[in-house]
Amino acid sequence: MQPPSEEDSAPPPPPIDGVVIQSICAAYDNDPHRMMDILIDTQAHFRWISPDAMHQIADLTGLSRIEVEGVASFYTFFSLTPNGRVTIRLCDDIVDRFAGMPEVAKAFEAELGIALGETGADGAFSLEYTPCIGLCDQAPAAMINDIVVTNLTPETAREIAARLKAGDTPEALVSDRFEALAPHARATRMVDNNIRHAGGVLLGPVPREAGLKAALDLRPSQIIDMVEASGVRGCGGAGFPSGRKWRFAAETEAERRVVICNADEGEPGTFKDRVLLTERPHLLIEGMTIAARAVGATEGIIYLRGEYAYLKPLVEEALAERRDAGLLGQAIMGAKGFDFDIRIQMGVGAYICGEEGALISSCEGLPGEPKTRPPFPVTRGYLGFPTVVNNVETLCHVARILDRGAKWFFDMGTDGSHGTKLFSVSGDCLNPGIYELPYGLSVHELLEMAGGEDAAAVLVGGPSGTMIARDQFDRRLTFDDLATGGAIVVFNGERNILEIVEYYMGFFVHESCGYCTPCRVGNVFLQKAIGKFRNGLANPEDIDYLRDLSATIIETSRCGLGMTSPNPILSTLDNFPLVYSAMVKPSKDRVRATFDIQSAIDGARKIAKRRSQIFDRDFTK
Amino acid sequence: MSGFSFTIDGVEITGAEGQTIMEAADAAGIYIPRLCDHEGLRHQGGCRVCTVKVGGRSVAACTQPAEPGLNVENETPHITKLRRDLVEMLFHEGNHLCPICEASGNCELQAMAYRLDMTDPTRFPYLEPSRAVDASHPDIALDTNRCISCGRCIRASQDVDGKGIFGYVGRGIHRQVAVNGENMAATDAEVTDFAMSAEVCPVGCIIRKREGFATPIGERDFDKGLIGHEIEGKKADD
Q: Which residues pair with residue A346 across a beta bridge?
């Protein structure tokens, strides 16, 4: 190792200490299924996961080193090289970019003296980009270790960087008495809820434990009947009827059953679960407890995305309060034999873990790869036990349905899309934030409420959803017309559609797990093809190529990621065809440049360390 | 065998409880193209070359359970086109230069391209990986630029040899097969391992030293017939 130079002030990362790793692994009983937590704690202590550490962890947990490395190298927040004391992750979502992130990034780079993707030589700071962190309504935003900062400008970025350089902790940026603040106060100081419209189900007044009390008066099968009769469908985006899911799990013979809350809200433009976790943690856990009662589960897991680490203390506090109040643990509410408890599983930066099989893999300490279906999680899920995975919003709905009745919920919304939905609206509108509204309103109506009337394009359901143009703003937000897990991203006429599409394809390339060929490789080809359009090098035939390749990826991919990743391209080809055809117009001389010789020979130039005698006019330079 | 019947491309075959579509097809002498699946190894369902259609839905034949009454589409022009796209993707993801590759003629990727009639110029861009060749081991060399991420070596080493020499690292397009150690020499790999045998690596990624070109071109596995002919031959033998 290089001796530190004179300017170096921050200490190097602590050397890998076997005793520390032993105690980390021991805290999880050396259980390989808790690999995520073991690696999280290892990185928290040493600021990276070194080859030595992986070796020791492998020995202690009975795995091979390559298996540990497989997990450590899968998740983007794990680092296999030493990170700085402070890691700053700037959200590079397209909404943040349009809100001025490039200037903010430049300010951070200048003030910290490091480029994006680098860790300073003094080991003080790491600076990197990360995909959507669920703060599009207050973009540009960033994570600084486990806290978040929002509404950044170049000025505030410089100020933050200067304070951190001067020795302030990230927490001190939030409040100088951060430790004294309650978790809820900390969270709401960092992040505005931006609740623009509170509906009658989740964000209006909610009586505590009314649903759970009602559930205890029912037999488990009656609870499932009620959930099924309410018409509630999965709110994460897929829309599977929740009651049916529960029935499958309840009907499977097993000694253990598991309820998992999917709080891995990763679809770019979605941030509704953030608000529910902040304002309704008890309702969520109540819903999980009801689910446990219904399917006969004794263990629960809340899978919280790494980007929401700042909400972890808040959820932990709610869990502790409930254990104290007899609402979790043994004999809940005095009901003999009703035992259920919940642990939090933190994610570490992987969109794919929102897919239920991948989420279960991750909870089991594996890389976040979807599982082969069948068997489905409801029959063989977490560690092989029947597992119900529900979205945060779905579980909150359930608690309200048990309190108010199936009919009350069923009567809201439209046929096939019952109840209310939390829409997270962001982008080019006056009032970005959360709107809780019954299913069935039109995009136009929502835009009016949000002050987004000059929208030229609206992305419904995030990049795996649909991008629509003005002529379709009268379409309705329902499962049957425009389905959405919550994301409504508004773009005005100034925005470059192809830039948006290219960004989202890059996102899918970054987030593909790599398990299956079409998603791993095909998405890279789609991204490159869009790049050709952006650079004016595309042919008219390339439009057919995009459609053809997209169809193969959709038809052959193994999970929902690959089955929807071409959607940004397909929905813009359908709804914004002129954007593409404008880029493939023949040039005046009828010669279309589809091949750029200069960039093609660039690699050869570098290797040969000289210029081309044929293609460079003055090859001596 | 107490079985049930279902059809593949209209041909009625017998399946048994617990069999996948592919297992039932193999037993009946119907070949479903595949790369990541190999007899005797756990099913992975990663390459997707065995994609078939069941009731209009695409599924991987190597992992999808056979069920009574299924009507499976296998070698339709549409499915063959999908498979050709997938094989093309694998060709373009790595560096597959058949004329200079020792595996040529024994290579399942190459053979699959022939079977699927991949004769037109390909449309995809080349990703041209540039990974260091690991020649550290006295008897085995590893050129992961030719790897198609089928993971057969991983499963063979783990489940058959009980060694766990290989594993996947990374994610997405950066996901690749790596060895459990600094390099091959640092592992307990032996050339006699099942994972290192000619039948496990379908391409020229795992190379056994000093046996290159022992079998001349023209007398190699797929010079004798299209990939899958051995399974299809079963039908004729019956």
A: A304
Is the ipTM here above 0.90? yes
pTM above 0.90, yes or no: yes
CB < 8 Å to B67, chain A:
none
A479 φ/ψ angles, rounded to the nearest 5 degrees: -65, -30
Q: State the Cα–Cα distance between residues A549 and A566, nearest whole angstrom.
A: 9
Provide DSSP, A180-235. Answer: GS-HHHHHHHH----EEE--TTTTS---TTHHHHHHHTS-HHHHHHHHHHHT-B-T
Pair A358, A562: CB distance under 8 Å: no
Domains of chain B: 4-73 (3.10.20.740), 84-223 (3.30.70.20)
Q: Kindly give the confidence (pLDDT) of every residue in chain B, 238 residues in length, as a single tens digit, with 9 standing for 90 and above.
A: 479 999 999 999 999 999 999 999 999 999 999 999 999 999 999 999 999 999 999 999 999 999 999 999 999 999 999 999 999 999 999 999 999 999 999 999 999 999 999 988 889 999 999 999 999 999 999 999 999 999 999 999 999 999 999 999 999 999 999 999 999 999 999 999 999 999 999 999 999 999 988 899 999 999 999 999 999 987 655 5
Q: Is B80 exposed, middle or buried (0-12, 13-18, 19+ CB in 10 A)?
A: middle
Distance CA(A465)–CA(A458), nearest Å, equals 10
Residues whose CB falls within 8 Å of the CB of residue B21, separated by 6 or more in sequence, listed in order: B8, B15, B32, B52, B54, B59, B61, B62, B64, B65, B66, B70, B72
Decide if B175 and A525 are in contact by the 8 Å CB cutoff: no
Per the structure block, which two tokens stand in for A253?
């013979």
Chain A residues whose CB is inside 8 A of the B166 CB are 66
Phi, psi of A354, deg, nearest 5: -75, -20
Question: Which helix (H) or strand (E) covers residue A55, if one does?
Answer: helix A51-61
What CATH architecture applies to the domain A417-495?
A: Roll (3.10)
Interface test with B, best of A77, A79, A376, A515 (most B CBs within 10 A): A515
State the Cα–Cα distance between residues A529 and A534, nearest whole angstrom: 9
CATH architecture of A210-411: 3-Layer(aba) Sandwich (3.40)
Contact pairs from chain A to chain B, CB under 8 Å: 112
Question: How far is Cα of residue A578 from the mean position of the Cα atoms in its chain?
Answer: 32
Interface of B with A in 99-158 (CB under 8 A): 123-125, 127, 149
Domain topology for A86-171: Glutaredoxin (3.40.30)
For chain A, how long is the longest CA-to-CA vector? 88
Query: B219 CA to chain A: closest CA distance, Å?
Result: 31
How far apart CA A300 and CA A341 sit, in angstroms, is 6
A66 and B178 within 8 Å at the Cβ level: the answer is yes
User: Cα separations (Å) of A392 from A192, A284, A332, B166, B235?
Assistant: 19, 6, 21, 38, 53
Count of other CB atoms within 10 angstroms of residue A9? 11
What is the sign of the dihedral through the CA atoms of B196, B198, B201 and B204?
positive
A558 with B46: Cβ contact below 8 A: yes
